[in-house]
């Protein structure tokens, strides 16, 4: 038997960590001296300790580690966790690339313009957890969808088609600031009329009323979709121009970021605020 200090030295797990894993039911001592309270570990526990150490280095949560230790042959959960970590790493890499690009390249020419837009029906999916999320611009409300993103993608194509939506076509992200603490973010597609089908749970339908917008637009390739420098400068200019208008916003501040494909690897980006 190995006392806790020896076991700690051999496995790389601190004494504090070993006590914590014991409290969590993850790795308890093989024996505890009833008189002194000293903890002793068996040599056969070294493998579990090293497994815990390696998985914690990979930021695997403790409940999943417990599952792995309980079923050593079940590697499916580990593979799923690794896939999640790799997706997160790609997201982090994209964020770093966007910031570095913004430092290296100028934002380019940004020209603000004004336009009159007719009313537009839309089908939307709320993206932000907010007291007002799920409420469309016309007040229509639907229940939230608790399924995973993959599950929604797997079964959404036919209902989208029945709603008159091509998910690869033009779409926008609508951000409406309600007050000092709440805002809604909704992914929207234009549709002929405001009617969300019953087989698209969690979606909302509504109508953007006829409106006057300040906008900036540009054509870009895939890399430009992540151009933080252009987006930051364009948004700054729009907000400054909106402030200069000094108009009251009865329904809150509304911004739209619209992406429209123009070719196999080209898009038009349109950033606008409603006056």
UniProtKB/TrEMBL annotation:
Residue ranges of the region described as Disordered: 127-161
Parts forming coiled coils: none
Biased composition (Basic and acidic residues): 139-150
Domain of life: Bacteria
Ranges for domain HTH merR-type: 1-71
A Pfam family reported for this protein in Swiss-Prot or TrEMBL: MerR_1
Molecular-function GO term, any one: DNA binding
Keyword vocabulary terms for this entry: DNA-binding
Protein name, entry field: Predicted transcriptional regulator
Organism: Microbacterium testaceum (strain StLB037)
């Amino acid at each position: 038997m190995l006392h806790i200090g020896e076991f700690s030295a051999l496995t790389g797990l601190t004494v504090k960590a070993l006590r914590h894993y014991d409290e969590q039911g993850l790795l308890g001592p093989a024996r505890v001296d009833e008189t002194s309270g000293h903890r002793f570990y068996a040599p056969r526990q070294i493998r579990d300790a090293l497994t815990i150490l390696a998985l914690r280095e990979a930021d695997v949560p403790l409940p999943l580690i417990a599952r792995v230790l309980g079923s050593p042959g079940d590697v499916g959960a580990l593979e799923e966790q690794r896939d999640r970590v790799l997706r997160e790493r790609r997201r982090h890499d994209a964020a770093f690339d966007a910031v570095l690009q913004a430092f290296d390249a100028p934002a380019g020419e940004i020209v603000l313009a004004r336009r009159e837009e007719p009313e537009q029906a839309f089908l939307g999916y709320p993206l932000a957890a907010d007291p007002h999320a799920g409420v469309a611009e016309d007040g229509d409300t639907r229940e939230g969808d608790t399924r995973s993103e993959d599950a929604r993608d797997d079964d959404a194509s036919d209902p989208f088609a029945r709603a008159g939506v091509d998910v690869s076509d033009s779409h926008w992200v609508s951000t409406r600031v309600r007050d000092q603490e709440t805002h809604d973010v909704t992914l929207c597609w234009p549709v002929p009329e405001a009617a969300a089908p019953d087989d698209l749970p969690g979606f909302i339908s509504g109508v953007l009323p006829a409106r006057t917008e300040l906008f900036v637009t540009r054509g870009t390739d895939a890399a430009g979709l992540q151009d933080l420098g252009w987006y930051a400068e364009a948004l700054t200019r729009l907000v400054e121009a909106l402030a200069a208008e000094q108009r009251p916003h009865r329904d809150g501040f509304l911004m739209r970021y619209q992406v429209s494909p123009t070719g196999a690897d080209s898009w038009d980006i349109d950033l606008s605020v409603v006056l």
